Amino acid sequence: MTWQDDAGRDLVRSFGPRMQQFVRGEGAYLWDADGKRYLDFLAGIAVTSLGHAHPVFVEAISQQAATLAHVSNYFATPPQLRLAARLKRLAGTGETGRVYFGNSGAEANEAAFKLARLHGGAERPRILALTDAFHGRTMGTLALTGKASMQEPFLPMTPGVEFLETSVAALESAIDDRVAALIVEPIKGEAGVIDLPQGYLRAARELTERHGALLIVDEIQTGAGRTGAWFAFQHAGITPDAITVAKGIGGGFPIGALITFGEASELFYPGTHGSTFGGNALGTAVADAVLAEIERADLLANAIERGAQLRAAIDGLDSPIVDGCRGRGLLIGVALRHPVAKAVVAAAQEHGLIINAPNDATIRLVPALNIGDVEVDEFAQLFQASLRTVEDSLLLDAATEGADA
Ligand SMILES: *Cc1c(COP(=O)(O)O)cnc(C)c1O
Fold first, then answer.
1. Is there a binding annotation on residue 218?
2. What is the pLDDT of residues 299-337, one digit of tens each?
3. Is 18 annotated among the ligand-binding residues?
4. Binning pLDDT at 50, 70 and 90, where does residue 398 land?
5. Distance 351 CA to ligand 1 centre (A)
6. Which residue positions does the secretion signal occupy (predicted)?
7. Which of 257, 278, 296 is the last residue of a domain?
8. How many structural domains is the chain composed of?
């Protein structure tokens, strides 16, 4: 029996076959059961922001597990209060901000959805979201996720959500005083690292404010320093009503949060939302330590610097199929000229590089925020070799087709 047999028999089929089984990680590297080493430029989908087995992560989880793990939300704990205060400071909410803790991105967005309903009431039944944005897989967040193919097997959806094309003009014509909220991903990660049009967030802030609607920014992939700011909305110099975070804030511990600003902080009242695990001492201690380390080591600056270095390396590659980069900081989408992204991912794995393909013509790079020169150089070599492998097989296919004709 191989691990593939076990996985095929025992694990839910909602994911495709697992590509590899990993047994250990350290820094930017992973190892499989045969002892083969891989450079990890996926970081568990922008999650392990300090890399694998970082001493700060290990220490925080061990210490807190040996002190106090969980008491329920009938009670407060010091790490929970520390993390709430830190998130408010990093997000710039000022005094009036509040934090709701959940255990995932989807839970953070579920809380945001409920916030929007509380704000909207009967007068504002409309919620606006963007086509191709991704907000999660639970029934509520799936209703916010503008992908018909994902929704179709699970219809009917929670009503009230309308999808807009991502342009200021589309938002201008859709918004009115019956809109409770607009939810936006500052860079559409799952769609293929697609940047918003220039000025979109500023215009969205202005229009939502004018019509009394909440602006909710989904920072689940872009947050925790990944784009070179703590949260991507900060590049635009706006203040949203709420943001959602998860992925990178826990460095590998499952945790998510809804952070509210100003009056939006007064919408939830006792009994309107909750979670057994959300914000427990163990998870909040880890996330607080991870964020403290991102601050201490100035990994926001590193994200900008290494991001620029990576882009330069990619632009310098000798490949006819690479068509440039999208994204910001260490959230990079490499555009391909042919729909061969899955083949590039498979070739990269053979060469000892872990990357992923959010769509057929994009490679997503979301390495740990603390990678250095060495990892960037090694990436460039391995990526070049992976592209070569795919280019050679494309040439081979073309030649075979020629011979068949
Ligand atoms: C990953 C992601 C989610 C969902 O987070 P989960 O932890 O998988 O539930 C929501 N929004 C965005 C932008 C994401 O990248």
1. yes
2. 999 999 999 999 999 999 989 999 999 999 999 999 999
3. no
4. confident
5. 29
6. none
7. 296
8. 2
